[in-house]
Amino acid sequence: MARPAVEVADIFRDHGAAWRSANAGHVGLDQMKVMSAIESCRTVALGGHVTRCEDCQHTIIAYNSCRNRHCPKCLAAARTWMEEREAELLPVPYFHIVFTLPAAIGDIAYTNKAVIYDLLFKASAETLLTIAADPKHLGARIAITSVLHTWGSAMTHHPHVHMIVPGGGLSPDGERWIAARPNFFLPVLVLSKLFRRLMLQKLTAAHKAGRLQFFGDHADLADTKAFAAFLAPIKRTRWFVYSKRPFAGPKAVLAYLSRYTHRVAISNRRLTAADANSVTFKAKDYRIEGPGRYTTMTLATGEFIRRFLLHVLPKGLHRIRHYGLLAGTAKAEMVAKARDLLAAPATEPAADGDIAADHVQQCPCCGGRMHVIETFAAGTHPSHGSAAPVGALRIDTS
Question: Which CATH architecture is the domain 88-265+310-341 placed in?
């Protein structure tokens, strides 16, 4: 695949040092590490290897990836994750549910990422599991894969979770599969009310336990009464829970997961131009239906960098989580039970030979097999100077 004309890494390399200097004292260590990783990704700074075609002798230098989860180029982990999810899919329709935090809570979440993102996961999962288990609705134990996104199309801070849920679940006794209605899973207004109540309860408990921090314009919220007053109007507003139409089969679920689970704030393919002063990228205006919603946005370079770094997650925070039938050590047993009730064959794991074949690198010139002929350490250059230009082909085989 050809290298995009503009990459986030290019912007960081060209302007990152000046931006860090101008914002000294206001850039977190996690953000600094992300910038450094992206700047070094697939460059001589991380070392790499040289491969050569056994047929036509075409030679390619492949630099190592940074493997940082915020890097737009490092999606190697997604392949393994996708293979595992494929083995868990059931032959039923799948629904897509989105839980979004109100803007006011999103504002305080930025300085309390680890706590509030965790509460968002827990409150949304508890909501879905509770309503699904209610006999007035589905009356079943369901499975949930939940993915945290913290951005909108313009890279502003917009925390929400995407949930992928099979259309049905196990009966309370585990002896029947209870199917959801064809184009309806659970009532969103009921989900919205319970989600609001649970999230506000959890926020109040976290504040009482001293787990939340407030700075700047929000400093006064450290006071219990001020925090209660802050939450009061939010209790009276509708919280948005969105349920989309079911996916068209398991393959569509996998396609969605491959695009969204390991996504970062902005992909390189959305960037269209960058210079010393600004960055232009593709964006969507979700208020507009039809072709008119697709547009471009231009930000000052410093503002682009700031917005990208808004979405750096705290170390150790898992942004993909599983609940219900997919949670814990009983997951394999629960999936097998559901497959048995649905009369679906078990998914066979790929043979070692199949996995190896999938990862054989083919020559871009003749399709022959490429073999590693040299590895070189970080900060050093390969000795095979006849290799193809670095920018001609970027292959992550680290």
Answer: 3-Layer(aba) Sandwich (3.40)
Helix ranges (DSSP H) in 236-323:
250-260, 301-309
Contact predicate 69/148, CB 8 Å: no
Q: Which token pair is 386?
A: 């006849």
Distance (Å, rounded) from C-alpha 141 to C-alpha 134? 10
Amino acid letter, residue 102? P
- Segments making up each domain of the chain, as ranges: 8-71+351-392, 88-265+310-341
Dist CA 120 CA 124 (whole Å) = 6
Q: Are strands 278-284 and 271-274 parallel, antiparallel or unpaired?
A: antiparallel
**Tokens 């992550």 label which residue?**
396
* pLDDT, tens digit, 9 for 90 and up, residues 2-45: 567 899 999 999 999 999 999 998 899 999 999 999 999 999 89
Which tens digit of pLDDT belongs to each residue from 227-276? Answer: 999 999 999 999 999 998 788 777 788 777 777 777 888 999 999 999 98
User: Parallel, antiparallel, or unpaired: how do β-strands 278-284 and 294-300 relate?
Assistant: antiparallel
Mean per-residue pLDDT, 185-200: 97
Mean pLDDT of 109-116: 95
Tokens found for residue 194: 């319970």
